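Let's practice the habit of predicting before peeking. Look at the sequence and jot down your guess about where helices and strands might fall. Then scroll down.
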Amino acid sequence: MKNVKKKTVDIGDYKYGFAMPERSVRRTGLGLTAKIVTEISTIKNEQKWMRDFRLRAYETFKKKPLPSWGADLSPIDFEAITYYLKATDKQARSWDDLPKEIKETYDRIGVPEAEKKFLAGVSAQYESEVVYESFNRELNKLGVIFCDMDTAVKKYPVLVKEYMSTLIPPHDNKFAALNSAVWSGGSFVYIPKGVHVKLPLQAYFRINAEAFGQFERTLIIAEEGSYVHYIEGCTAPIYTTNSLHSAVVEIFVKKNARVRYTTVQNWSKNIYNLVTKRAQAGENAIMEWVDCNIGSGITMKYPAVYLTGRGAHGEVLSIAYAGQGQHQDAGAKMVHLAPDTTSRVISKSVSKDGGRTSYRGLIHIGRGAKNAKASVVCDALLLDDLSRSDTYPTMNIQEPSAVVEHEATVEKIGAEKLFYLTSRGIKKEDAEGLLVNGFIDPIVKEIPLEYSIELNRLINMEMEGSVG
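Done guessing? Here is the structure:
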C-alpha cells in the first residue's frame, strides 16, 4: 500500500476540492503501453475477448490524432498519467464497510444522504473502480439490472457483447479509443420491457489521485415501453498537475421507451473532461440528455441521439458555465434517420472573468426522414468584457420536407436589471446571481429538486466577487 503526499492548491470556494491520502492496493505505472493494457485486463481477470478488444483499441489510440478543432488539448501528456488505480480490495454494500478515507469523502459530498432520500440505486466510483453499490431489491425482482460494467462483463457477457461499442466504436475518436483500451468501472443498466423505474438511479464519480485518468464506461439498455432516469455527478480535488476524465456512454432506447440521462459535472479546474456520449432511439422512443457543466478546465462533450425509429424524439438541454481558466466546448448532435422524428436542443451558457463557452452542434436529417422537425436554441450570457462565447452550428439537411429552426443570442448581463435590484438593497453579487439563475431556469427546472437547489447554489457561489 502507498501513502502519497499530494500537492494541492488553494481550493477557494470549490467545496469538493479536498483530497484524501492515496492508499492504493493496485496501480499501474505511468504512461500507456500494450503491457499496461494487458496488465489492467489481467488485474480484472477478464476473458480473452475483452483483452483483445482492449489491445485493438490501444493500437487505434496510437494512430488517432488529437482533434484539430475545439479546445487546445496539446498540453495533455499521456505519458505522465496513471491509467489504473484501485483504492480498495473489495466493493462495499454498506457505507460503513468502506475504508475510512473513502467513506469520509462520500459523507462530505452528501451521496449517502441523497441515497436515503431520493434514489432507487447508487453506484459510487472512486478512482478506477466502483467501491460501493446499493440497489432496491423490488426492482431486482422485476428484472432490472444495475451494476458496474466490470460485473456486467462477467455476469451478462451476451448482453455486453451485443451492445458494447456498437454506437461508439474505438475508431470514432482518439478518446473513445483510449477509453476502450483502459476502461474501468462505470454502470450497466438493463430495464426489461414495460418496467418503469420511478426513482432515479445514480452514479457518482470521484477522482482523488493526482495525475490520474478515470475512464468509466456506461451502457444502458431500455427495452420496449420502459422508463429510467439515470443521474451522474462528479468531483475531484484541485492539484498543481492535471488529470484526465474520458468516459464513454452508450444508450439504447427501444420502441416506446424513455430514458433521461442527467449530468451535474462539477470537476475541479485541473481536469480535462473529454467525453463521448451517444444514444439510439427506436420507434416512438424518447431520449433526453440534461447536461450541466460547471467545472473542469476544459470540457469537450456533445451528447448525441440517433433517431432510427419512426416518431422518435431526442432532446439535449444543457448548461455551461466558464469562469477564469475554463473553456466549456459543449453542444449536441441530432441525427434524424427515420420519418416523423423530432428533436429539440436548448443550450444556455454563462461566461465570466475571461472564461470561454462554445456551442458546437450538428443537425443531420437524412434522406427518407420525411416530416422531420428540429429546433435549436443557443443563448449565451457574458458577464464582462474579458469573456467569450462562440456558436458553431452545422446543419446537414437532405430531406426537403424537413422543418429546421435555429436561434442564437449573445447578451451581456442587463445593466437596467442590475440597477433595479441594487437600488433596492440587493448586493451586486447577489443580483448577478439572481439574473444568472433566471437565465438558466428553463434547464434547471428539468432536473430533480435536490440537484436544482445545488446547481443554483453553485452558480451563486461562482458569482461571488464577480464584476459586471
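How did you do? Residues 1-14, 16-21, 236-240 have pLDDT under 50 and may be disordered.
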